[in-house]
Amino acid sequence: MTDYIIRRLLLMIPTLLGITIMVFTISRIAPGDPFSIAMGPGGQLDAERFADIREQQKKLHGLDKPLPVQYLIWLKRVATLNFGDSIKHHRPVIELIKERLPITLTLNLIAFVIIYTVSIPMGVLAAVRHKKLFDRLSSVILFMLWSLPVMLVGQLLIGYLCGPAFKNWFPPAGLSSNYADTLPFFSWLGDRLWHLVLPVICLTYSGFAYLTKQVRAGMLESLRADYVRTARAKGLSNTIVIFRHAFRNSIIPIITIMATLLPAMLGGSVIIERIFSIPGMGMLAFEAVTTRDYNVVMAVATIAGLMNLIGLLLGDIAYAAVDPRVSFESKV
Amino acid sequence: MSENGTLLSVENLSTYFFTEEGLVKAVQDVSFCIKKGKTFALVGESGCGKSITALSVMRLIPIPPGKIVSGKIILEKQNLLKCAEKKMRAIRGNSIAMIFQEPMTSLNPVFTIGSQIVEAIQLHQKKSFEQAREDAIQMLRKVGISDPQRRIDEYPHQMSGGMRQRVMIAMAISCKPQLLIADEPTTALDVTIQAQILDLLDDLQRQDGMSILLITHDLGVVAERADDVGVMYASRIVEMASGRELFAGPLHPYTQGLLKARPTLGYQGKRLAIIEGTVPNPLKFPSGCKFHPRCYLGCKDKRCQNLEPQLRQVLPGRFAACWYVPGYETAQEKAEYESSYGPKQ
Amino acid sequence: MINMTDKKAEQKNWGVSYGQMVKNEFMKNKLNIISLFFIIVLFLLAIFAPFIANDKPYVIRIEGKLSFPLFSSLTANDYVILLAACIGLCQLLLMRRNQRTIEPTMRGHVLRRQLSINAAIFIICSVMLYIFIPSKLDATDYKGMISSNRASDAVFAPIPYGYARTDLRKREQPPSREHWLGTDDVGSDVLCRLIYGSRISLSVGFVAVGISSLIGIIIGAVLGYFGGKVDFIGMRFIEIMMAIPVFFLIITIVAYWERSLFNIMVIIGLTTWTGDARFIRAEFFKLRNQDFIQAAVSLGLPIRSILFRHMLPNGIAPVLVNATFGVAGAIFIEAALSFLGFGVAPPTPSWGQMLSLGVSTTGRFLWWLTLFPGLAIFVTVLAYNLVGEGLRDAVDPRLRKAA
Predict the structure, then answer these.
(1) What is the pLDDT of residue A156?
(2) Are residues C252 and A158, on separate chains, in Cβ contact within 8 Å?
(3) How far apart are CA A259 and CA A265, in angstroms?
C-alpha cells in the first residue's frame, strides 16, 4: 500500500503544476493590473500621471518581467513555501492563509459532520420504508431544500433573525462579537459558536438532500441484492440483515462521495462568507480575485488544489479499505 | 403418501402477486410431499412457479406485492404458514436451508466466507466463536474445499463459481437441516462442475439422511438424482410420480412433449420434436387447462378449453392433471362430457 | 394521444423506440408532468416577455391616429426568440408526425434532414433580423401622455412597466397595488424584471449545459474509445480540472474578462464538463468490448461513425439526466455570480443581481427584493431537478426490465 500512496503523491505533482499554470495563465492574460485598480477609477483615466508610480510598483513586485519567467520565479519561491506578499494587504501571503484557512476549515468540518450524521440514518430509513410515507415526504422536502438558493436562505435568515426589526436571535455578521477578546475561554467559544449557527445552517441544508439520496439509492440496491436473500434464508432477523449486510455494502459509494464533498463545500463557502462577512478563505479568494492580488490568487489555487487532491487520495484509500474486491494493484 | 416417511407436506399452496399490471397467480393449488432422506424434484420451464413455491415454503416471498393466499405447509405437525415470524426464523437455516441459483451474487462480497458461515452457526447454535469457526472449517472440508484453514478467510470474489456454490452448501448444511431446498443450484455453472455439485449433494444426503427439494428445468439432472418428481406448468403441478415411473411412461402430454424433445444418442437426421407455442404470460393465462393451446390432444377439446383439470391420483403413487389420462375422469364426468359434447374422439 | 400512437404503431408492427419507452415511463408519474408543465410555462414567460411586461402600450391613439408602439419597439432579440420558439414547435410537431407515419429505420435520416433544414432557416432568418431591425430606443413616456390627455384609448400590457425603465422617485418601494412586487434600488418594477430575468436564466442554463455536454461527450468518447496513453493523459487533464475548485476558477476567469452574458455562458460551459466526460468515458469503456461494436469495427466503419452513431446513443442516458441537473446548476451558478457582482451588467435583469439588492445601502432589509427573486430561482431549479429525477427514474427501470 505504501508504494501506491507514493505513486499517487508523485502523480499529484504534475497535476498541481497543471493547476498552477492554468490559474497563472488565466489571471495574467487578462488586461489590467492591481495598481490601476487600487488607485481607483481615476487611476485608469490619468494614465500619464500615474504611469510612473505604476511602473515602479510593478518593478517592486517583479511584474515587469516576461510571463514565463515570472512563473518560474514563483515556482522557485513556492518550493520554499514562500508564497510571496499580498499586494493589497502588504503582508506575507502565508500569514493571511494561516489566519483564514482554519476558519473555513472549521466551518466546513462542522457542516460536514452534521450532514453525515443526519443524512445516513435518514437515507437508510427512507430505503427501508421505500415508497411509504416517510420516504415520499422526506424525498419532497429534501428536493425543495436542494433547490433553495443559498443567497435567498442566507439573506432571509439575516433579515428575520438578526435585526431589531423582527427577532434578534443571532448576530448578522462576523465571527465574534466586538467584545469577544475580553471574554474567558468558554464564553468566547460560546460566542463563536453562536456566530457560526446561521452560516452552518446555510452550508448544511443543501448537502442533506444530495447525501440522503445517495444513501437511499445505495441501500435500495443492496436490499435488492441476492446476498440479502441468502442472509434472510439463513434465518437472520430483519434488523441484522439491514444493518450488517445491506448497509455495509452501501457504505462503499458513500465513502467515495465523502472525498468529493469537501472540495465542493470549500467552493460554496465563498458566497456564505460573503453574506455573513466571515473572514475565511472564501472571502480571501474573492477579494484577491477582484483586486488582482496575484500572489494570493495563486496561493489559494495551489492550496485548494492540494487539499482537493489529498481529499481524492484519502477517498481512494478509504474505498480500497472498505471494499475487499478492490486492491491497490488494480488502480493506477 | 405414507405418513411415517414424510418430512414436509405441502397442501394446496397458492401464492399470488398483486402487481401494478394485474394479479399474477404464480402458484395455484400446489400439493406434494417430501419424504425423509429422499430427493423431490420440481421440474418446469422458466416462469412456471417452481422457485416461488420454494420461496413460499421458506416464507421468503416479498410481502407487499406477494401473498401466500391459502394452503398448508406441514413440517413435523406444525403448519409453517401459521407460525410466528420469530419461529420461522428459527427454522430458516436450521431445519430448512436453501441454496440459490447464482453463487456469484448470493454471497456478501464484503465479508469473508468464514464469517458468513460462522454467522449462520452462531445464530442457531449456542457456540463460541472459536467453536463455530472450527465447525465452519469442518463444513468446508465436508463439501470438498481443499485447504479449508486458509480458505476460510478468503473473500467470495477470490473463488470460482463452483467453489462459491460449495461454500453456499457448506453454509446451508452447517446446522444440519432436515430439508435442503436447492433452487437451480447448477444452472449457472459449467457442465463439469454441475456433476460435481450434484454428486456432493448426493453424498451429503446419504451421510446425513437429509431430504432435498431440487428445483430445476434440466431433465437430465432429474433423471439421475430424483426419487420423486413433480412437473409444473403455468403455476400448477400437472404430473407427479416417482422418477423412474415418470421417465418410463409419462402420462401428461406436457411431460411427454418434454421427454420427446430431448435429443438422445443414436438419434439421426430429422428435426427435434418440439412443443408448439410458448409459455403463457402469467397475467393472461388461458382458460380451462392452461396447457390446452399447445396440447396435441386437447387443443380442440371444448372441455379442455373451459374446465381446468385438478391434480388427481390416477394410479398408486402417480398423479396427473389431464382429462385425457386414462383413469383420470370419473364415470360421471365422462357421462357429462358425452352428453354436452358428444362422444370423445 | 400517447396510446393512440402506440396502437397505430402496433398495427403497423413497429416496435417502441428507446425514446418512446423513456417518454412513456416518464409520463406515468404525475409529479414529472407537473414539473414539465411548469418549465413550459417558464419558457412561455421568457418568450413572450415583451408582450406581458412592457411600458409601451399595444395600441394608442395620439392626436387621432392609431399607433402600435409595443410592436414597433420589439428588438431583434425578441424576434429571434419568437422565431426560435416557432421553429422549435414546428420541429416537435414534425417529430410527432414522424413517429406515426415514418418507419423506424427511416426516421433517423428524416429527422436529420428536418433538423438541418430548420437550423438553416433559423440561422438565415436570425441573421436577417439582426441586420434589418434597428435597435431603437423608444423612451417616450406613454403613460405621461395619457395622464396629460395628449393621447387616449391605450391598451397596455398586463404589467405596464419596462425592465429598463427607472423612476428614481419610486425607489425601494415594497409591494403595492401599482408595483405588485415592489421596486428595486433604481425604481424599476420587480415583477417586470423578474419576468425578463427568466430569459437570462434559461439561456444561461441551456447554452452552458449545451457547451459542457458537447465538450464532455467528445472528450469522454475519445478517452473511452482509445484508452491507453490517450486515456492516461486525458485523465490527468480531467483531474486538473476537477481539482481546482470550480467556483473559484469561474470567478477568476469572470473577474478578468468583460462582463457579458455570452462570456458567462461559455465560461460555465468550459468549467463544468468533467462530470459528463467521466460518465461517457465509463460507458464507452463498457461498450467498447461489446460484440456489436466489434462488428462495426470489423465492417470498416469510420471512427466518427462508430463513436457517434453506434456507441453514443447507447451511452447517452446518464448524460441526458446530468444535463437537466446541469441546467439547474448553471442557473444557480449564474445567480451566484450575479449576486457577487460578476454577472451580467445592469440594466439587463438577472435574478441573482436582484437578490444582491436585498440589503440596501442604508442597511434596511428589503424583503421583497430577496424573497421574490429567490423564489423564482427556487421554483425554476426545483422544476428542473424534478424533471431530472423523473428522467433518471424513467431511464433506469427500462434497463432493469430489459436485464
Answers:
(1) 82
(2) no
(3) 11
Which stretch of A7-16, A254-263, B49-58, C286-295 has the lowest confidence by average pLDDT? A254-263
CB A287 within 8 A of CB C251: no
State pLDDT tens for residues A215-230: 888 888 888 888 999 9
Nine-digit cell at C154? 391605450
Distance from CA of B310 to the nearest CA of A (A): 32
- Chain C residue numbers with beta carbons less than 8 Å from the beta carbon of A274 are 340
Neighbours of B7 (CB within 10 A): 22
Q: For B294-308, what is the mean pLDDT? A: 84
Neighbours of A329 (CB within 10 A): 7
The ipTM (two decimal places) reads 0.82
Rounded Cα distance between B123 and C295, Å, is 53
Cis peptide before A121 (omega within 30 of 0): no
Q: Which of C252, C352, C371 sits opposite A297 (nearest CB)?
A: C252
Q: What is the β-pairing status of strands B39-43 and B228-233?
A: parallel
Considering only CB atoms, which chain A residues are within 8 Å of B155?
Answer: 324-325
Residues of chain B contacting A319 with CB distance shorter than 8 Å: none
Is residue C313 helix, strand or coil?
Answer: helix
- For B147, which DSSP code? S
Is beta strand B78-79 parallel, antiparallel or unpaired with respect to B66-75?
Answer: antiparallel
Compute CA A287 distance to the chain's CA centroid, rounded to the nearest angstrom.
17
Contact list, A271 vs chain C (CB under 8 Å)? 336, 339-340
The DSSP 8-state label assigned to residue B149 in this structure reads: H
pLDDT 10s digits, C100-112:
887 777 787 888 8
Of these ranges, A12-21, A121-130, C4-13, the one predicted with the greatest mean pLDDT is A121-130
Whole-angstrom distance, CA of residue C304 vs CA of residue C298: 15
- Let me know how long chain A is: 332
Joined grid coordinates for residue C12: 403497423
3-state SS record for chain A = CHHHHHHHHHHHHHHHHHHHHHHHHHHHHCCCCHHHHHCCHHHHHCHHHHHHHHHHHHHHHCCCCCHHHHHHHHHHHHHCCCCCECCCCCCEHHHHHHHHHHHHHHHHHHHHHHHHHHHHHHHHHHHHCCCCHHHHHHHHHHHHHHHCCHHHHHHHHHHHHECCCCCECCCCCCCCCCCHHHCCHHHHHHHHHHHHHHHHHHHHHHHHHHHHHHHHHHHHHHHCCHHHHHHHHCCCCHHHHHHHHHHHHHHHHHHHHHHHHHHHHHHHHHHHHHHHCCCCHHHHHHHHHHHCCHHHHHHHHHHHHHHHHHHHHHHHHHHHHHCCCCCHHHCC
**Residue B143: Cβ-neighbour burial (10 angstroms; 0-12, 13-18, 19+):** buried
The neighbour count for residue B292, using CB atoms within 10 Å, is 23
Q: Please tell me the distance from the alpha carbon of residue A21 to that of residue A24, in angstroms, as a whole number.
A: 5
Average pLDDT value over all residues in chain C: 80
Is B30 in a helix, a strand, or coil?
A: strand
Sheet holding B78-79: strands in order across? B22-35, B6-19, B66-75, B78-79
Residue C370 three-state SS: helix
First to last CA, chain B: 34
Q: Does the beta-carbon distance from C389 to A143 stay under 8 Å?
A: yes
Q: Is the pLDDT of residue C400 over 50?
A: no
- Residues B190, B192, B195, B196, CA torsion sign: negative
Between the ranges A182-191, B328-337, C141-150, where is the mean pLDDT highest? Answer: B328-337
Measured distance CA(A306)–CA(A20) in Å, rounded? 11
CA distance B19 to B298: 31
Asked whether A313 and A16 are in contact (CB, 8 A), the reply is: no
Chains contacting A (3+ CB pairs below 8 angstroms)? B, C
